[in-house]
Design a protein that fits this description.
It is built from two helices and seven strands, in the order βαββαββββ. The protein is of the alpha+beta class and 92 residues long. The strands form two sheets. The chain has a five-stranded antiparallel β-sheet with strand order 2-3-1-4-5, covered by helices on one side. A two-stranded antiparallel sheet has the order 6-7. Strand 4 and strand 5 form a beta hairpin.
Length: 92
Amino acid sequence: MTVVVLIAAPEGLRGHVTRWMVEVAAGIFVGTPNRRVRDRLWTTLSDRIGDGQAVMIEPAATEQRWSTRTAGRDRWYPVDFDGLMLMARPRR
């Protein structure tokens, strides 16, 4: 399963994501796209997010069984802490 969260996304970007995933709440999408679709979707999201924020949580061969991608402005970012992926806030 893949989860995408969009915050302050430009017009049309949420509609673009609904081609492959279901919007379960405002800006939160869930689906099971294959790796190729996820990679292309992420390329589109990271290119078009602008001043917004995008987070993708996807299956991965890690101990946690998932990985995170982030894009946008003032975003939280993944940090490897002894093999455990945690999210860090940007410092102001």
